[in-house]
Amino acid sequence: xxxxxxxxxxxxxxxxxxxxxxxxxxxxxxxxxxxxxxxxxxxxxxxxxxxxxxxxxxxxxxxxxxxxxxxxxxxxxxxxxxxxxxxxxxxxxxxxxxxxxxxxxxxxxxxxxxxxxxxxxxxxxxxxxxxxxxxxxxxxxxxxxxxxxxxxxxxxxxxxxxxxxxxxxxxxxxxxxxxxxxxxxxxxxxxxxxxxxxxxxxxxxxxxxxxxxxxxxxxxxxxxxxxxxxxxxxxxxxxxxxxxxxxxxxxxxxxxxxxxxxxxxxxxxxxxxxxxxxxxxxxxxxxxxxx
Length: 291
What we know:
Elements: E1 6-15, H1 24-34, E2 38-41, E3 44-52, E4 57-64, E5 73-74, E6 79-80, H2 83-86, E7 100-107, E8 112-119, E9 122-123, H3 126-136, H4 140-146, E10 150-153, H5 157-164, E11 169-177, H6 181-199, E12 203-209, H7 220-232, E13 233-241, E14 244-249, E15 257-260, H8 267-290
Antiparallel strand pairs: 1-8, 1-10, 1-15, 2-3, 3-4, 4-7, 5-6, 7-8, 8-9, 11-12, 11-13, 13-14
């Protein structure tokens, strides 16, 4: 009996500076209007190929750029293809191979994009979507209207808690890029803003180390800052595992909402349902952080 198909949904936290137009729907509309693919790995590119401003639902298209003028391999001769054979190759410049497409949705109040990280036996990693936004948001038209927009994958809250609770935690490193103050509450926002002003930067790190036989025991304040870093940066830990120093990094563990469904069910309604569940988890965590 065939297994029911599975869908996994991850999220990207996007922050427009408070000094600029914080219209997240307009931001995604402008990104879609760029009609620009971004290299996310090797010869693989990602682009927004569809966006409904009214429904706030779109499609990411992942495809491959190939060098049609480079050398080709002839499987029949099992050697480089001859120049005569290459003269017969005619691939229109507007056609790109290896297409896979993934739904995404915007929740503007959370300024979070939820996207299909796995669907229809195809995957789109959170790091790839991070790379897309990191580059696309640098476009001059985006910067002129929205300023320097930050984007980070939302990391697994469970993984953050696991790192903080490691029995032999020797080092903890929190990287925090400027969050939206409304997400974290006044107290945490003041702590972060003070640290940023001290160094005149847009991100800062807090590093804790234990020496010798001592282990770290993170405080409640550190735990809260780690959860902020999980949406606006990165959490890294080093611990002793069976006598070996082992590194753990939240970049490898995005927050994932997953479900299975019947193969005859349409994909979009399922994605929307799972995306709403992801948004609810993020909202609940932010409410908890605001106290």
